[in-house]
Description:
The chain is of the alpha/beta class. It has five helices and four strands; from the N terminus they run βαβαβαβαα. Strand 3, helix 3 and strand 4 form a beta-alpha-beta unit. Helix 2 (62-72) runs parallel beside helix 3 (91-110). It binds the ligand Nc1c(NC[C@H](O)[C@H](O)[C@H](O)CO)[nH]c(=O)[nH]c1=O and the ligand CC(=O)[C@@H](O)COP(=O)(O)O. The ligand Nc1c(NC[C@H](O)[C@H](O)[C@H](O)CO)[nH]c(=O)[nH]c1=O binds next to strand 3 and helix 3.
Amino acid sequence: MSLDAPQLLSIDGSPFTVGIAAARFNARLTDALLEQVVKQLHDAGVKKKNLHVVRVPGSNELPVAAQLLAARRKPDVVIALGVLIRGGTIHYELIAESATSGLQRVALDAKVPVINGVVVAENLKQAEERCLGKINRGGEFANSALEMAALKKSLSQ
Ligand SMILES: Nc1c(NC[C@H](O)[C@H](O)[C@H](O)CO)[nH]c(=O)[nH]c1=O
Ligand SMILES: CC(=O)[C@@H](O)COP(=O)(O)O
């Protein structure tokens, strides 16, 4: 279990615009991740009007949604959220790989940081621990987003 996430740097989120794409697959868990992310961003000062949330069917659709958000909403950072749980076939593994490389591609092509907030779990218990339990992955994704938005801003000046 990975618990060694970096400490949040002291970052004022008030100047930032954030795009969030969240899958609807495994909705109880992705909704919880989304709540954690939004709470952390609000706590850091990100304004409600500067949060653009879109939903997609599953994690496979996240790269396109991230690309559309990056192009249409001009965010400082995009966060992609999904929960992939091993099924009976290797389908989840293929999606995990293509979503990961797709999200990175969008980030590099659009020159906008894209946070990979896709939880990939062997089973429901692992996924619940990360989205509903003592591991606050959503908060960690939000912190990464704030740090990358701040980095982008500082290097753009
Ligand atoms: N099995 C999971 C999926 N599967 C759905 C795909 O992401 C996609 O929507 C479908 O293949 C149509 O392109 N998605 C998740 O987010 N989590 C899963 O566990
Ligand atoms: C339909 C899916 O997204 C797929 O991952 C479901 O799992 P399975 O591998 O059992 O077909």
